[in-house]
Specification:
heterodimer, A: 422 residues, mainly alpha, 3-stranded antiparallel sheet, 18 helices, 3 strands, 3% strand, globular, B: Penicillin-binding protein 2a (Domain 2), 18% strand
Amino acid sequence: MRQEGTIVNKIDWLVVAIYFVMVILGWLNIYAAVYDEEMQMSIFNLSLNSGKQLIWIGTSVLIIIVIMTVDFRFYDSFAYIIYGIIMFLLVAVLFAGVEVAGSRSWFSFGGFRIQPSEFAKFATALALAKYMSKVGYKLTNIRDLFVTACIIALPPLLIIVQGDTGTALVFGAFIIVLYREGLNPSLIVIGLIAIALFVLTLIFDQTTLMIAIVSIGVLVILIGKKKWQRILTVAAGMLIVIGVVWSVDYFVNDILKPHQQNRIKALINPEADPLGYGWNVTQSKIAIGSGGLLGKGFLQGTQTKFDFVPEQSTDFIFCTLGEEQGWFGTTSVIFLFVLLLVRLVRIAERQKEKFARIYGYSVASIIFIHFLVNIGMTIGLFPVIGIPLPLFSYGGSSLWAFTFLIFILLKIDAHRMQVLLR
Amino acid sequence: MENNRKYIIQFVFILVGLIYCIKLFQIQFLDETYGPAAEDNILRRIRDYSYRGIIYDRNGELLVHNDPVFDLMVIPKEAHVEDTAKFCGLLGITREEFITRMHEVKDYDIFQPSVFMKMLSMEDFARFQDFLVDFPGFYPQVRSLRGYQHHSLANALGYVAEISKRTLDNDTTGTYKQGDYIGKSGIELEYEKELKGENGVEYKKVNVRGVVKGSFKNGKIDTLSVPGSNLTSTIDLELQQYGEWLMEGLAGGVVAIEPKTGEVLSIISSPSYSPGFLSGRYFSQNFAELTLDSLKPLFNRAIMSVYPPGSTFKPLQALIALQEGVITPKEQIFCSGVLVGDHAPPGYYDVFKAIQKSSNNYFYIVFRRIINRRLSENTFIDSRLGLEKWNEYLYKFGLGRPLGIDIPNEKGGQIPTPELYNSVYGENSWKWSTINSISIGQGEINISPLQMANYVSIIANRGYYYIPHIIKEVGGSNQPKEKYQEKHFVGIDSIHFKTVIDAMESVVEGGTGFRAQIPGMQVCGKTGTSQNPHGEDHSVFIAFAPKDDPKIAISVYVQNAGQGARAAASIAGLMMEKYLTGEIKKVWIEDYVKRGQFIY
């Protein structure tokens, strides 16, 4: 009893409060998204997503209790084992899973489906934290860096094989963690340049881009000092840039599947084909935009209820919020997310143990990537990538996975003083 | 330095949140296009088409009614045709037509209903209706089409067709929507406002699959259609049909008027077409066919074609001369017969005899007296003053200007004015001898059949007229439009009409107009032969009857049918007999007309 008392006293209640506010808001919005004026079904009705979500919320509370009861050292000790089990499941799902919407990433038990890739997020976070907190770990050490890269890259590779590129992209979040732990920022800058080139390649045709790159290169050579070494460096850089452009072009047009190509094209110019690949973005923006400042009111949205917005209770749940609660609603939720993220960073920073800090940053980074991509796609700033809005979107696996992520951190955090004593 | 990174990370988190809030402010508050776009998504406007007013003839016979037709609508997003062959078979279209049409409607709007096939008749649709359930996304919309139980009066009735892009663009009131029908000519155009009524709109909410999810704003902004007003025409359908039958195979125009009211009893343009030909699904191709027809069936000759009146002009010249006092009724004028070619023999003529015998020389002399009044020493100026005075009379008789009948595109014809001659010969360079051909209704004078009928109505009325009109009641008003209720006097004393009318009676009694006789009735008329430089002369006749209580005044123009005494007088007589007695006793005249051999 003494230990439970300390948990209640030491747990970060702000995060717990944000968690529950978000989950409840999400639940209400799920109901609004699937509500049908003519059917008049209750929010608790189990044939509705809102009714099912309530079950997921209930089970999440059970998960929280379990996490709080289990010894905090368990996660550190069993990090690799958890990671291993999840990796096994990621492979197993390829053979024993069911295919939903083009991805084979689900186990089906009766009426419920579980998506192991959702759980890979916290498993990877644990394994990464464990590995990076080992004695003598250095990011400058090639071997350490390589193992780190492998831990991060393995799950997304398996997930891509399942056909779920969206979830795989989330693992990019760990870049933020590595950055915090001292990764050379020039690597990140190079990554950003690559992304800029990627976008440019999609906007302009290849020849135009090549001419522009060569012209810039020649200009740089002409303007600066004419030393052989410098000229060669610029020329080499130019060749690399051209290579990137060429490979991006090849990647988009020849490797990506048509529906993936369309998602990227829709981002660049959704108006080009509002009924085709731009449909989701266009309708999503109409939903949010039509909400105005104050929104249409709870259950009054038409875009979502009349199915103009696809996936309105899962990936596009933000549309329901935007349409019915308006700018005040969307801003409030964004405020909640930013508050949560900043709070998670603070929690991570106050850890004395490296393991806990890295895990904390992982949690913040994963939530951030979801927040960035999910809301970004609904307002047309990101391509349509099918990942949920944490704690809002309908879906058991996702809610459970985020519950694990957050509450394991809170559990460890609650015991941070004990670490000092050890 | 690495210590800063935790701030950089937090800064990035907050920055993203800020950017999103700003972007959301832009789409949710600043950009006002999304609200309407969302409404547009869920709104289905179901037009409740108004019932176009129907038109009766003067005896309550239906001239125009409405037939229900079905527009087959499609909502492309929902449309699903499994058995294309069956679908096409039922509608009588080819597979290619089906594919093209589906592409067109998809390109237009995938969620809003479009017309897949227009104006299916009740029979065509009945065939399709039983299988409607097999073709989700398709549904019928009832509309009405103009229907006719006869084949007459097409030019005057006009037609109704889908509103053109241009008319739609010019419609600033927003009354019309694409796909609406609108009167394009004739009565349908003239009385469009009265006939149209008001379309209603019902707003429904639909989901993305087009399934109706209830009324929009509880039906508060829905409107019901208001039917258009019914019209009563002045036309006597039986007379009209009889006249058209007589004119079959002939080209020309006939107008019959009830003199006391100005009501048009019959208005015929020949050749014409059956009004039903321009109603329905095949409008475009039928219209094109009529447009290309060298006989110009769309051209309403009764009000749009103008011809020299020939000798039918003589009673008018006589009336002007009498009113001006340049002749007296009993004055004998010697006509040598050398001034101009003449059928009338030389000798002494008074007005009566001059009209009866249609003396060209007499009217040469009389017209000279009208034109040259010695008001000026200069014969050129004198001629101009005389012509101006003469013009005033003609203008009062409704010549040289559109009368204002309630059918669009009426032509005013031409009367020779000083301006006209000035432009041809130069100012003060013309005199009576230059223009004397107009004294016998030839030359620069052109009159439409309608104007001729009005002119003979004026004679029948002894000096006044009502503007001829074809609609006498709008929506049970019991009276025509205001302008048709006003009596117009022509400024000739009624006493002068006696001589002229007596002479016109003798024309029919024992003169050239004998074919227009009606057994037991006094008929007054005047024949005319309108010289035509391009071919055979036009046959012209004007008449009214009975003499003392005129019930009908008529003008008949038959193109290229020679003397007015033949085709025109026969047709005028038969139509008057039909109207006044309800039967034809002079069947041999009927036979004569139907044989159609007028040039001999």
